[in-house]
Amino acid sequence: MHYVILRPPEDACIERVRERSGHGFTDLDAARRMYGEFGNAALASAGIGQRHVVDAGESVDAALLAGQICALVRGGLLTIFNCGGYSSTSN
């Protein structure tokens, strides 16, 4: 199995929450808190290495991002499970 987290900058997340229309979640403070809780320390404690985190900032071109992810998959860098069981997610 391959695992990737597309993580935009915090400012982009907050702006997306702010600009949503017709969506029930509008609490910017809660969004900031959740972003912090999903930070590097939380990922590490869940056994998810930094190699699984890909910057998905506003200026990232979708085609380039897809190419980057495909290259990581081809290189085996996003694998967390293999046929033999659990594979380490360390950096």
Briefly summarize what is shown:
By secondary structure, the protein is α+β, with helices and mostly antiparallel strands. Helix content is 43%, strand content 11%. It has 4 helices and 4 strands.
Shape descriptor reads globular
- Total strands: the figure is 4
Element string (H = helix, E = strand): EHHHEHEE
Average pLDDT over all residues: 82
Major β-sheet annotation: 2 strands, parallel
Proportion of β residues? Answer: 5-15%
Radius of gyration: 15 Å
Q: Which range best describes the helical content: under 10%, 10-25%, 25-40%, 40-55%, 55-70% or over 70%? A: 40-55%
End-to-end span in angstroms? 17 Å
Q: Going across the major beta sheet, what is the strand order?
A: 1-2
**Number of helical stretches of at least 4 residues:** 4
Query: Which spans of ≥5 residues are poorly predicted at pLDDT below 50?
Result: 86-91
- The structure class reads alpha+beta
Task: Tell me about this structure.
This protein is an alpha+beta fold and 91 residues long. Helix content is 43%, strand content 11%. The protein is built from four helices and four strands; from the N terminus they run βαααβαββ. Helix 1 (10-19) packs antiparallel against helix 2. Mean pLDDT is 82; it is low at 86-91.
Tags for this model:
11% strand; 4 helices; two-stranded antiparallel sheet; disordered C terminus; 4 strands; 91 residues; alpha+beta
Secondary structure elements and pairings:
Layout: E1 5-7, H1 10-19, H2 28-37, H3 40-45, E2 53-55, H4 62-74, E3 81-82, E4 85-86
Parallel strand pairs: 1-2
Antiparallel strand pairs: 3-4
